Amino acid sequence: DADAGRRPEAVTAPGEADLAGNDLPADDPDGIDLAGAGLRLDVDGAVATVTLDRPERRNAMTFDTWRGLAAIGRSLPAGVRVVVLRGAGPSFSAGIDLALFSGDGEGFADGSDAEATDRFIAGLQEGYTWLRDPAFVTVAAVQGHAIGAGFQLALSCDIRVAADDARFCMKEPALGLVPDLTGTKPLVEIVGVARALELCLTARTVRADEAARLGLAETVVPRDGLDAAVADLVAALLTVDAGAAVATKRLLWQAPGNTLEQQCAAERREQAGRLRELFAR
Ligand code: CAA
Question: Is the CB of 54 under 6 A from ligand 1?
Answer without folding.
Answer: no
